[in-house]
Every structure is written in structure tokens, then in C-alpha cells.
Hints:
The chain is mostly helical and 269 residues long. Helix content is 82%, strand content 0%.
Amino acid sequence: MTAVADRRTGWSPATERRLRVLAPVVVGVVGLAVWQFLVTVVGVSDYLLPSPAAIAEEFVAFWPAILQATIVTGTNALIGLVVGSLLAILLAALAARWHAVDGMSAPIVAALAVVPIVALAPVLNSMFGADSQFGRQAIAALAAFVPVFVNTLRGLRQTRPVHRELMRSYAASGAQEFRFVTLPTAVPYLMTGIRIASSLAVISALVAEYFGGPRGGLGSFISTSAATSAYARAWAYVAAAIALGLLFYVATALLERLVMRRLLPQSAP
Length: 269
């Protein structure tokens, strides 16, 4: 496959790796340059689009507050991601094992998938008090639950009957069948669900913070800054939220690669 790609592009594998890293950087720099041009030369108003330079100044000036808010949001998103993923894996395993559980869980998962976070966040914040982060963590857990459940359940059902029959013909126990057949088949689907859920957990935690609850977190400061017309500062918090989402995505992608290397057999070259 690599040889075919090399013949088609005329580039060496090392050059292609450099281009994969360099291309997004170049696009980002060009985008920032166009953004700065629109603000400084074209004259786009600050309340519509603050300049990257102004956002950078606010980011540096309020760095301690931004860092603290990022830690709060990241903690809420991480707790929600871990709890939601664990519950989703457990329920998916039960649903794959018993059809009755599958039938009962299907409408619940479908309902959770369409829960409006905008409406749920103020309710949970009011229920658990102004000083509790539980409402935000619960919303992040709900957002992470659905993709992990759907992908894990699909992965657990991908094992072919012929493979199960082969394991039984060797007198393998249920645990051995799960370890050597079911689990390796389901792991790629599970890790894909977690990777998708990582970004959803961050977004959901931000939305929950935006609509009330205890002060702290990126969502709260975005709301406060926008309400006081500090638009460049609000965009600085938005930039921190983007960085946090990318951090979660990259971390789960690296975790996926590590798990695939450790758990699944290496493919022959």
C-alpha cells in the first residue's frame, strides 16, 4: 500500500509524514493572517470578530484565570467521560448477553441521545445547589454514555458464530471465549466510541457551565465576558476550550493506539 502511494505521489514516506504535520499548520497560519487582515484593514467590528492579536493579549493577561477555568472544565469533562464510559460498557455487555436487557435499554439510550443539554443544565444546577459540580459532571457523563454504548454494543455483536463454535470445539471456557474472540473484536469499536465521547464530554461540560451553576469553568467565564462586552477575553476562553477539546481527543487517540498494540495481536508485515 505504501509503495502504491509513493508511486502515485512521488514523495517518500518521510516527506508525506512531514506534509501531514505541516499542512494543518500552514492552513492555520493563513487563516489567522486572513482573520487579522479582516479586522485591521477591512474594519470588521470587534464585537463581531476581535483580532487574533487582541485575543492573544487577553490570553496572556488573564492566563492564571484561564488556566484555573480550564482545569475545572477539564476535571468535569474527565469525570463525566470516565463514569459515562464505564456505565456504557457495563450496560452494553449486559445488552449483548441478554436480549431482554437490550430491549429495555434501547428506548432509554434513544431518549438520552436527544436530551437537550440547554434545558437540562439549569435543572441539574438548581437540584444539586450552586456550589456543586455534580450537575456539570452528570451532563458530561450523559453525553459520553451514548456513543460509547452504541459502539461497544455493535463491537460485541461482531464476533462471527463460526469463531465461537471453534472456541467451543476446543473446550474453551466463557471467559476464554470472551478474552480471545469477543474482546479483540469489540475493542476497536469501543475505542472509537471513547474517542468520539471525549469531545462530546468537553462540549457538554462547557454548555452546562454556560447556563449557570457554580462560578468557575470556561463556560462560565465565556458567558460573563460576553455579557460585559469583553469580546476578546471571551474569545481567549474559547481558544482555551478548543485547546482542551483537542487535548482530550489526542489523549484518547493515543490511548486507542496503545490499547490496540497491547491487546490485539500484531498483524504480519
